[in-house]
Amino acid sequence: MALPRLKRRREFLRVAERGKRVGRPGLVLQALGGTGAPLRVGFTATKKLGGAVVRNRAKRRLREAARLVLADPPEGWDLVLIGREATVSRPFAELLADLSGALAALGVKGRR
Predict the structure, then answer these.
(1) Which of 4, 5, 43, 85 has CA atoms 20 to 30 A from the CA of 68?
(2) CATH number of the domain where residue 39 is located
(3) Are 27 and 83 in contact (CB under 8 A)?
């Protein structure tokens, strides 16, 4: 099942300005709690990563990791997952561990 998404630029900027941020080798996670709404997730990758093919692959891997780790999504959070250079080449199990660790560091309750 797909997670509800952040789609508008202003939503991403709100999370970046007001939320907390933690980095892991495979990704950067920004989280804004207390929204009172169901969990929403946004995915982004900058042009520093490479061309469109590389950026899209990074975002696909992040979407799948979020789908697995957030199978039982917590309420009231807006999350933004930002791809890094290692997102594309990192073993998927380690990418899952990166996401789980980042969620735990920010106090977001995930299932994994």
Answers:
(1) 85
(2) 3.30.230.10
(3) yes
